[in-house]
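Homework help board

Subject: predicted structure for assignment chain

Our instructor gave us this sequence and asked us to write out the predicted structure in token form, then describe one feature. I got the tokens but I'm not sure how to describe them. Can anyone check?
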Amino acid sequence: MAISHTRPRRRSTGKRYKWLGPKKMHELGREPSLTIVGEKTLQRIRGRGNNRKFRLISAETANILDKKTKKFVKAKIKSVVENPANRNYVRRNIMTLGAIIETDKGKARVTSRPGQDGTVNAVLVD
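My token output:
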């Protein structure tokens, strides 16, 4: 069954809304991509207006910003150390916005949304 972003069929009191009709294409939702550490894999998604969105399914490198030198460096991702979105994501090595990852250059905080941007951008943590 399709994931839909429509309002529920019942109110919080339990009363039913009037019939909403069938699901519409603009109400379509998708399951989360849950980007993991591994060989780079991208998935192309067609958006509304024939726009393209790239979902990062797995990644092995990250673009790391060093605040001291103000330069970006590409570093290999070793593992996910901490993830504020869900503590179980650390065990499964899932990267989301705000996750702290262990890299060759040290620990870094993810600043991009890998499941929607298609890249892993991060900033070194002191």
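Reply (TA_rk): Your tokens look well-formed. For the description, you could write something like this. The first helix runs from residue 88 to 91. That's the kind of observation they're looking for.
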